[in-house]
Amino acid sequence: MNIFYWSPFLSEVATVRAVLNSAISISKYSKNSIKPYIINSVGEWNSFKDEISQNNVGLINFNKNINTYKELPRYGFLKSRFSYIFIFIISFFKLFNFLKSLKKDDYIIIHLISSLPLILLVLFNFKCKFILRISGYPKLNFLRKILWKISNKKLFLIFCPTDDTRKFLEKNNIFNEKKLFVLFDPVIEFNKIQNLKKKRIYETKVKKYVLSVGRLTKQKNHKFLINNFKKIVDIEPDLKLIVLGDGELKKKLINLSKRLNLDNKIIFLGHVKNVYKFFKNAYCFILTSNWEDPGFVLIEAAATRTPILSADCPNGPIEFLSSDMGGYLYKKNDNENFIEKFQLLVENKKNKINFHKTKILFSLKKSKNYTNFRHYLNLSHIIKSN
Fold it and tell me: Residue 161: which residues within 8 A CB-CB, separation 6 or more?
């Protein structure tokens, strides 16, 4: 049996790591009964070649021009849409011919830029089985809704990242509910975390800080956090904010911190490879996203026993934290409630309230559902039972 992953990308979003971890988990735990491959459409996976090769994952190259991917524009709505359309066009016939070569016991799991394989699925007949992986919280615009509905009959399975997403799709009558399965993303490996979180932080000398991790985009809602950080400092004057991540809003967010006279309190460190050492030493982790499903950084914070303050955004945080059992949930974009929940976190932490420790242990236990091994067991079970 072969499993092929289709997931072209412009920036290294969480889905990229999920795809790679999924393929690695199959290679590591299937005992050679399943062979995983990643399709490299325009060179987007070139920077992962060594890791892919070391973990015995196959890489199928559609385009030999290694400069194609590097030249594509990434930031901005129109520029990114141009790049998506370019990938769609240049990969159309190559993907069609590749799918035609696959056998009945082969699977292709569709992650990003799903419109291309789904259109091919609707227009043509293939022997292999198609699995649609819903990545993140799905926005049901008109075109997506139509494409998903007309491809429903030919799709073998649909994987959802959370149970709330599955229920959302059932409620909107998009897919046959018998084809819908919850499959948690492979996010963490505890043996690696143990080593990574012990590493020393060289990027800054700040000792007491709250942590924000994620791409600097509208979805992650860093603007809300920066606008409220002045009030956080009033509660805990020694605290600073460390922001890990890059994105198109970086310059605007830096300028906002300057206008609010917080540039000496907020530190933008950009993308860092080892986030676990920052989680381990953080006063708490704050997630202000407008939507997450459930958010890799939420799981990483839980796995490192970092206290979590999160927006109750759809769909993942509420489900992962089981309301307030695994962290402190505030009403999304509610300034007053955000500060109230932060104040509660501070008081519980200072007074060493057992309830605070219970939250940390609860989220740690939930994070164990997102290991590579657990992902492989669930993926193989779902496929074999269908």
Answer: 134, 135, 136, 182, 183, 184, 185, 293, 294, 316
